[in-house]
Specification:
CATH superfamily: Aldolase class I
Shape: globular
Oligomer: single chain
Largest sheet: 8 strands, parallel, barrel
Number of strands: 8
Radius of gyration: 17 Å
CATH class: Alpha Beta
Structural class: alpha/beta
Number of domains: 1
Helix content: 40-55%
Number of helices: 10
Distance between the termini: 17 Å
Bound molecules: cytidine-5'-monophosphate
Length: 228
Amino acid sequence: MRERLMVALDVENGEQALNMRDSLGAAVGWLKVGLRLFVAEGPGLVRQLKSTHRIFLDLKFHDIPNTVAQAVESAGGLGVDMVNVHAGGGASMLRAAAEAKKAFPALKLIAVTVLTSDPMPADRAHSLALERAMLARECGLDGVVCSVHEVETIKKACGQDFLTVTPGIRWGGQDRQDQQRVAGPDDAVRAGSDFLVIGRPILHAADPSAAAAEALAMMSGAIGELSE
Ligand code: C5P
């Protein structure tokens, strides 16, 4: 299960990030570095985190094709395991990103479909996420970021190997905060999500490693049910 859990290190600085990394330890396989931490600390911190965990560089590139391709190349050079672009950037941007990724065979290139925080009606989010996932697949990407609610439809349309990365994970009556389309760690696994992204429910918990253990236990419980 640890290889399916990504903790979003949305903390203020490198010291806090390294402390969180150390308290989570090997229970968690992936760390996600997003805008806040990358803008504050840059690639040096990513290199440090990379020595113990797989890294998802979540900078959601959305620019002209040439610029996005160059950014993907830089991410590949930095040695991260996963990087993402916005599917809203369109087919030529997605193709340029996929072309740049070819130089880094181990790098997973993922497209954001619709932000899990977007308040658009659920059926609109569902159809737009599916449309963007199909486009990302056609353009040669490895998968998408989507909500748990869209995983099954996307897997059906794009194939089981097409990766789904799902933020918006909440359980046990936790506050949704700015997220709209949320689901529990068990529901995410039941839906077939490949990677669960969890930030504040772990970062802001009184005991972050206990919160991560709780999420992992719910994920394992759901796997147990699926294999019964
Ligand atoms: O704190 P929380 O669990 O809501 O964090 C979710 C993380 O996933 C954040 O780092 C956010 O930037 C990221 N994310 C998201 N929705 C997307 C893509 C990434 O919430 N569509």
